[in-house]
Amino acid sequence: MAGKRKKSDDGDEDGSKSNRKSFVVDGDDDSKQKKNGSKGQQLLPSTIKNKEKRSAVHAKLKQQKKLEKRKRAKTRDAAEKQALELGEEPPPKMIPRTIENTRELDETVCKPDDEELFAGNDADEFCSVLKRECNPKILITTCRFNSTRGPAFISELLTVIPNAHYFKRGTYDLKKIVEYGRTKDFTSLIVVHTNRREPDALLVIGLPDGPTAHFKLSKLVLRKDIKNHGNPTSHEPELVLSNFTTRLGHRIGRLIQSLFPQSPNFRGRRVVTFHNQRDFIFFRHHRYIFESKETKQIDSKGKKGKDTKEENGSQEKMVARLQECGPRFTLKLISLQHGTFDTKSGEYEWVHKAEMDTSRRRFFL
Amino acid sequence: MPRTTKVECPGCPPIRALTFDVLGLVKVVEARSKQGGVPKVVERWGDPDASRCVLAASIDDCKSDPLLAVARKSGVVEVLSPLTGDLRVSITNSCHPDLQPEDDTIVGLHIFKKQILESSFRSCTLLTCTTKGHASMRSVEVLKSPHDSISSDSPITWNVCAAGNILFSKVDGNENYAIFGGKGVELNVWDLDACTKIWNAKSPAKNSLGIFTPTWFTSATFLSNDDHRKIVAGTNNHQVRLYDISSQRRPVMSMDFRESPIKAVTEDLDGNTIYIGTGSGDLAAFDMRTGLNIYETVSAPVESLWAHWKLLGCFVGKCSGSIRSIARHPELPVLASCGEYLVSCLVLVWVFLKQHLSNVVFDSNFNDEGAYSDYLTTSHGNVRTELASTAEDLPSNKARDEDDTLDEDMEESLPVKRKKASKEHNPSKKLKPKKRSKKLDGKDFDAL
């Protein structure tokens, strides 16, 4: 096992290493392992040819590792407890290494003190909506063939996005629809694309000349399939956009933001979340409530309250409960195009290409 | 171990490039060898203002008094000093007062390098062309302050086209001819002295299915500096076409490149190679003698830059946005392309410039020492001659020798990255790593 991991790490340097070469690396590792086996450990299970024997050795190794890990955790806990009892400073908590916090350095990450960025924001296409000069008005339509889950998804989108209007696609060209939306003062156009009766892509077009974002849509769960779901009210929702860090992410964030009215009605206690994690944008729609509880326990909060923003620091009796309203889906950006929909002569601001995916730690949003 | 360190920037030869963006900012990017060749934004001129969006730019980088002309969205043409950014002259391009500047934006701008007026003052001649096809040529005397500059005589104006939208204009190396073209406008060649149209392209015939593709040129350039007869144009339906004025009105050669529209075409110094940039961020080089694609770019990430270079023999970059403009350095083997947010130089290095960029030009007078003395081609001059000699050595194997020359560019400019090739002492006669040459051979097979 260890040899294998080593191999993959070596491979990090050069993603396109040939198979033959990696074998060589593997062999090198094995020899190293043999040399290093000073603790009296057995040879690697992968070198054993008898399967039964190999699996037995492997299982044993694994068990050993598990025990070691448990022991380490125990000693760590004990040290912490002891430190607390003695009134000392407990040993610093280790920060786990995740893909997010080892993300590749990206110079395009927006800085909060960048006045040029704000000047750019003031000049972009979403500015009039975001400055509340006009109210967002959304046109939702579909691809040409549309059935079952598509309409159901759209009817739920209509409850999520205020001032959204569904229009039948008919046989109109998308460019014609864009034209129509412009004349009728729509600010955005959403096209839900379905494939084999399952929504699989979302096209968000800013009107009149805003950018066109093409998202892949996956993991769609409709409201009725969510257990203990709530029914949303027609209040303007609050919007949570998290983790849109880079210049591109910032722009996508603004595109999404411009779909919703900029004056949330807090009485509705309705929140729409777009959470970006590793370039996947997770959509969730919740209702929340603050309740006063006698006990300080937090485990009585909502079932799906993973990302509750509760404030149990100051007032311990107030507890926020969440209820999911649905739908629930995941978006992934495929392309961002300058101007409205135009596949043939369009100019892309960003296109996802396969050759960008050579590292797991590179994110674009 | 996960890779958490940043790959060191390969660096580039000392260059100075000026970039222009939609907020009307002019940014100066400089790379000095003292700082390890990492390009940085050293200066920023102007305040962000969307109405001052730069549409076209042109530089006259003569040694004594360089000038930079910038066309803004508001219809103003400004002549700046590329050294300090001071405004020298500002002209409103209002030959047709009934048209709003927003409707009739400037698409082409050229500042003439040769002096037309014989006067004691520095004068400059500007050629502008608008979307509607109003071309005008005017001379301006540049004095010390912007207020006492005089537009010496009334501009010479003419109409390039009756219908359609002009998208670009380009002036040849000797500055006697200009091409215009655009959406619904075939390529036109104009004699600038006489202001007459000397040649007009003809659209290609219908294809085998009888389908006619409407004319939509997006960019064009003269193939070599001293020959105005060969023109390379890029079209919206991803074609690169070679026209020869002296032979026929239809394209001599026509190549398809990928799927997205060609957005920028720039010639190389050798008179054969052109570089094209597309709407989805691909950068490629074509040899116009054969019509073969020399390199294709992939927007590969940083780490595998070297690996990809070996595998594909292509430009590798970080741009995944549309390429708006490509500039070839007049002396150094450096190519700059500007995409959505990034400017990259032969895609060895790049700078994040935060805005949608519109243009990039090189200031070739830049010297590493910082002072603007005469630029002597010392070490880099050697490189250039070397390039020429290698190109002559292997005339038969074009794809290969082009690769070699560019490879040299690469190595010349990135000594840090040369780990694998560092064993050999003579960079011009080098042994290639095995894998690379194998790949190359395979590629040559494809080409043949």
From TrEMBL, chain A:
A Gene Ontology term for the protein's cellular component: nucleolus
GO BP annotations listed: maturation of 5.8S rRNA; maturation of LSU-rRNA
MF terms in GO: rRNA primary transcript binding
Pfam families linked to this entry: Brix
InterPro entries the record matches: Brix, IMP4/RPF1
Comp. bias (Basic and acidic residues): 295-314
PROSITE patterns given in the database record: BRIX
Compositional bias annotation for Basic residues: 56-74
Annotated ranges, domain Brix: 136-342
Positions of the UniProt region annotated as Disordered: 1-96, 295-316
PANTHER family associated with the record: RIBOSOME PRODUCTION FACTOR 1, U3 SMALL NUCLEOLAR RIBONUCLEOPROTEIN PROTEIN IMP4
Protein name per the record: Brix domain-containing protein
UniProtKB/TrEMBL annotation, chain B:
Biased composition (Basic and acidic residues): 439-448
GO biological process, alphabetically ordered: ribosomal large subunit biogenesis
Compositional bias ranges of the Acidic residues kind: 402-412
Residue ranges, compositional bias (Basic residues): 416-438
Residue ranges of the region described as Disordered: 387-448
One GO CC term on file: nucleolus
Annotated PANTHER family: NOP SEVEN ASSOCIATED PROTEIN 1, WD REPEAT-CONTAINING PROTEIN 74
Protein name: WD repeat-containing protein 74
